[in-house]
Amino acid sequence: MGKETLSQNEVASLLGARDLTETTSVPDDSVTELRLKGSVLPPADSGLSESKAPVRKRVTAYDFKRPDRVSKEQMQAMQSLHEGCGRNFGASLSTLLGSMVDVKLTGVAQLTYSEFVFSLENPSCFNLLHAEPLDGPLILDINPSILYPIIDRLLGGGKDTGPPSRRPLTEIELRLVRRITDLFLKELHDAWEKIIDLELSVRRVESNPQRVQLLPPNDVVVLISFEIMLGGARGMMNVCIPCDSLERVSGKLTSHSGVGSVSQTLLEESQHRVRNQLGGVAVDVVVELAQAKISTSDLIDLRVGDLIATDQDSSHLLPVTVQGIHKFNARPGSYKGHKAFEITSSVEK
Q1: Domain check: are 126 and 268 in the same one?
Q2: Of 51, 209, 243, 276, which residue has the fewest beta carbons closer than 10 angstroms?
Q3: Residues whose CB is less than 8 angstroms from the CB of residue 20 and which lie 6 or more positions away in sequence, other chains included
Q4: Quick one: 135 and 254 in the same domain?
Q5: What pTM value is reported for the model?
Q6: Nearest 5 degrees, angle CA 169-CA 172-CA 174?
């Protein structure tokens, strides 16, 4: 069988080849002799004293359709900024509606613009935002499953909400939605104030996100998702920021991500603001005196002055409910000529 002399580069390639099956050391000249599929191939003088097993390196798959345009530190900074924004927006919305609204950040992710658009419902409340001095527009999308219950509360509706409507917003509803978006844009401006002074405004509102050709489909965007809960209704609110718009503030985001004390300070400030804003929210407090069951005939015969006896003892504590939830027990009485009740204990749940 014929022999062939290989160059040093070819020997290095053979060392990493998968079909390398056998290695034999030649002691007289310390040159490695390689046997590949039955052929003896002595390499050129490479100075190798002994053969070594090829080092396998860990390879990470890279998706060219979804490149990571924003670093991990910048993503952490974005999450820190918008956690406080969500809490403050929930407090402001609670004050506006007169009901408890919980808003929490569910995630910050990178994806393509087409993936973001096709993940939205149709119709939806698709707001195109102008954010000076950032390059390019921002997007604020509010899911109809939570938007219509909020509109219903603004119009004086109760707690019970029917199935979410699948229709575009009317002109009157768009004006009511503007009050909600203005609240969020104010909190978004305050959250970004230490990074950049944003002037945010709504350019226009669309109902079909797929018809809005705002960016090329493969452009990478940062998606910030919030979950809004109002009573039994819940839905998502998304903020979409093109990565190209973040390039001018990328350095400030990186420096902001490493300051743990700033995050703690922002958290304390947010908690203080939430307490102050929730202090003006009115809640329903109900004291249940007694319950009784009577027949329909007795109900028809009821007259002024009739007495209805109950099974409840006069010394029994009365349940106190806050927004329909049993929170305290109380004793009835009077105070300065007014009927009153004294809280005696709280209900632990």
Answers
A1: yes
A2: 276
A3: 14, 34, 36, 54
A4: yes
A5: 0.57
A6: 50
CB 254 within 8 A of CB 77: yes
Structure tokens at 162: 């029917």
DSSP string, 105-166: EEEEEEEEHHHHHHTS-SS-EEEEEEEETSSS-EEEEE-HHHHHHHHHHHTT--S---SPP-
pLDDT tens track for 200-238 = 999 999 988 888 888 888 888 899 999 999 988 889 999
Report which residue type is found at 278.
L
Pick the closest to residue 99 from 161, 163, 57 (CA basis). 161
- How many separate domains does the chain show? 3
Q: Are residues 195 and 293 in the same domain?
A: no
- Distance between CA 117 and CA 121 in Å, rounded? 9
- 207 by DSSP, 3-state: which? coil
CA distance 283 to 100: 9
What does the alpha-carbon distance between residue 199 and residue 172 come to, in Å, rounded to a whole number? 26
Helix (H, G, I), strand (E, B) or coil at 247: helix
Q: What are the tens digits of pLDDT across the range 124-181?
A: 999 999 888 887 789 999 999 999 999 988 888 766 666 667 788 889 999 999 999 9
144 and 255 together in one domain: yes
Residues for the chain: how many in total?
A: 349
Domain membership of residue 145 as a residue range: 72-278
Pair (174, 253) in one structural domain: yes
State the SS3 of 303-330: CCCCCCCCCCCCCCCEEEEECCEEEEEE
Q: How far is CA 108 from the centre of its chain?
A: 7
Angle between helices 171-192 and 72-97 (to 10 degrees): 130
Same-domain check for residues 235 and 182:
yes
Q: Are 224 and 133 in a shared domain?
A: yes
How far apart CA 92 and CA 228 sit, in angstroms, is: 13
**Same domain (yes/no): 184, 301:** no
